[in-house]
Amino acid sequence: MIEYSTFTLSNGLKVVHNYDGATAMVALNVMYDVGARDESPERTGMAHLFEHLMFGGSINVPDFDGAIERAGGMNNAWTSNDYTNFYDILPAQNAETAFWVESDRMLSLAFSEKALEVQKHVVIEEFKQECLNRPYGDMWHHLRAMMYKTHPYRYPVIGKEYSHIENVTQEEVKDFFYKHYAPNNAVLSVSGRISLEDTQRLAEKWFGSIPNREIAPREYLPEAKQEDARYCEVEGQVPQTAIVKAFKMPDYYHDDYIVCDIITDLLASGRSSRFYRNLLMKTGLFTEVDSSISGSDEPGFLIFNSRLVDATREAEDAACRVMMEEAMKLSNGDVGQYELTRAVNRFESNFMFSSMGFIAKAQSLASYVMHGEDVNKLVSRYRNITVDDVARVASYIFDEKRCSTLIYRQQNKD
Length: 414
What we know:
Elements: E1 5-8, E2 14-19, E3 25-32, H1 46-53, H2 64-70, E4 74-79, E5 84-91, H3 95-107, H4 113-132, H5 139-147, H6 163-166, H7 170-180, E6 186-192, H8 196-207, E7 230-236, E8 242-249, H9 256-268, H10 274-280, E9 286-293, E10 300-308, H11 313-331, H12 337-354, H13 358-370, H14 378-383, H15 387-397, E11 403-410
Parallel strand pairs: 2-6, 7-11
Antiparallel strand pairs: 1-2, 3-5, 3-6, 4-5, 8-10, 8-11, 9-10
Helix pairs in contact: 1-4, 3-8, 9-15, 11-15
């Protein structure tokens, strides 16, 4: 059980605190309710650009990294389709430095032309390295464009194309910042050797005077229900054929979301999983085969991700067939209570071990408060999943009419 306290400042900033006396450090995490889904179709990659821009200097702190490093700390960030997250780790006696610098960049960035040009260059080079010069680097571009026709999930976090970032103006940057980066659109999470009283005092001191802002509404329409099987074939400089099968699944807040999560554990978590035992070890078709969920707030997808031994059409057909056959066993009541309990035990073990460190707790608490959840109720929710739930959800998830299949082949050298 994770002991924590929450409170909200008058400007709307939600704050969560966890005391961890096992460390001499403090982790301060700021999660903003903005991600790739909040971007204009003509300016994809904007949230990811901001992940970088937030380190380029704020109104009173020209060197964010330098301030943290001089306090003996380090920092990092990540962006998803739904959220942008920043975290700092410092010795407890210097924790106030993190409150100071994080509050300053929440107040306002410096909006320097030089910083914008530098970070645009960094993001563009990252796009080229990750998406254009890496095997399977553009896989998510093809897969998301196939699965989503109208929803902003149709673009990966890094953006549709780097020209969108290349052409970003300072005015567009300012507009995006003031519409999304605000105390009433964020959660501040603090974990480590710091008391609740000090957290309350420092949060009020540094964040309390930041004005709340009018957050841009999400005006896009929900994605229409997929009624047809979709296929996409791609060739590239890749070492072997890859097959990804993606099935639409419910959103994060739906009760069946965690059932989908446990289904992927039954299929592909560990050497006792079905994909490992029955596909990887027995068929001779795969060098790897996995299953996971996208983990998105709005309706996402459950995927099978595989790499094949042979680059033949016969191997592709066989791989698709056996993956579906193995998955469909779950809908036929093939999962017993013992297997389900083992999968939930594995989930609980992974969850508990991942929640032991103060850094992980700061990030997970921010996420659960953002979602309006109690982190201590999560395991019990998984414990309540039944074998009938698994069969019921598998029966409607693993429908070829709801499936998008991407086959990524080696480019013909002739």
